[in-house]
Design a protein that fits this description.
- The chain is of the alpha+beta class.
- It has one domain: Small protein B (Small Protein B, Chain: A, Beta Barrel), CATH 2.40.280.10.
- Helix content is about 30%, strand content about 35%.
- It has four helices and nine strands.
- The chain has a seven-stranded antiparallel beta sheet. Strands 3-6 form a two-stranded antiparallel sheet.
- The protein is globular.
- The mean pLDDT is about 90.
């Protein structure tokens, strides 16, 4: 059985060079996992805060689960990530370098558990983004030429 992708960070490949990926569990409340299974997650403004001992998913929006009513969660609360010490230490060492950060890439369900794909990323410069846009435009134009001939 494969992984069911719930939410992706759509700007990550455009804004960053993704260097190394990790799979992390998320410490959730009951209403949060139900909301995730319903697809009510947004990673658009989310980021990962790493200190020497722990990693946290900050500013990810998990919508309140309506049937939970009064036992609901705060949609933007910081959530602890479940990682091995070695992985956290590796991220901590990477983040201390200039221009390097840790970002969430996607949330998915794996064997009924919510997992987060996170990546160590280096920010792209403006000229990198421009060259990527130009390359995409050239590929699109070549695709049009192929389809117009056929």
């Amino acid at each position: 059985m494969g992984n069911k992708v719930i939410a992706t960070n759509r700007t990550d490949h455009f804004e960053y060079f993704l260097l190394e990926h990790f799979e992390a569990g998320i410490a959730l409340q009951g209403s949060e996992i139900k909301s995730i299974r319903a697809g009510q997650v947004s990673l658009s403004e989310a980021y990962i805060r790493v200190d020497e001992r722990e990693a946290w998913l900050v500013n990810a929006h998990i919508a309140p689960y309506d049937p939970a009513s009064r036992n609901n969660h705060d949609p933007k609360r910081a959530r602890r990530l479940l990682l091995h010490r070695k992985q956290i230490r590796e991220m901590w060492n990477a983040v201390r370098q200039k221009g390097v950060t840790v970002i969430p890439v996607q949330v998915y369900l794996k064997e009924g558990l919510a997992k987060l794909d996170i990546a160590i990323a280096k920010g792209k410069k403006l000229y990198d983004k421009r060259s990527e846009i130009a390359k995409r435009d050239v590929e699109r134009e070549m695709e049009r030429q192929v389809h117009s001939r056929g």
